[in-house]
């Protein structure tokens, strides 16, 4: 999460006597963006259709301007030269915030593409469709515009459900996929039982908190061992990251499907499930059951001392295992 250490925050609170004027989450963004750009990944916006735009972070080398071109010439993205890796974020934050600890580690060997799903990070659509299938459609259409025709797919939480939909509907494009903290589909039974277990009436109450107390509860559920942060930081996070509440609530409503409408797709790709052992939002039992449902193409491993946010809590372990899986699949192709 885009959160500085508690020591830094306390120091900043002392520096700024009128602390209501400074949003510490927003103030960290320029530094984060600068670091991501140093890793060779830059922002780019794709218009998939009139009224629908998706923000991406894409490899800098795909936007190189020809030597003899005019400075005012619009540079069209070129086909990437390295294997493509698509990282899809979850519901709490935009793409680059979610994957901030993965970019530098992965960009050396892979062309990394990080989208902001619709109604996150500036991506939007006036199309009323809020389904994961529409998110998948817009992502694939964007990637084709960006010159990408085949990729490795990594999905976290809500992004994992979108990733499964991409692999199901566009199997020729997905070389293999890694999923963490997610499920194949959110049935009404899973939704109801999970929310009851967590103590919430609706997914919106859980994932779209309006108060510091609500965000603290979500954060405690998402990590193995909660860290202390001042209330000011949680308040700033809500202000910066939890936007487009109406549209996001609609995304959550469209996520839930009837039990009778569920079918398990026959995926041809290798699928690796990588789970935090202490995940409370989608506990490891979901991963074990999903591995059985997916069959022989699925593998699974857990990360100790990590919860739902395993990629942020233990990024070195997560990155090492992710790269190991990707390398094993790439060597077979």
From TrEMBL:
Superkingdom of origin: Eukaryota
Pfam families: Abhydrolase_1 (PF00561)
Domain AB hydrolase-1: 83-315
SUPFAM superfamilies found in the cross-reference section: alpha/beta-Hydrolases
Protein's name in the database: Epoxide hydrolase 4-like isoform X1
UniProt organism field: Camelina sativa
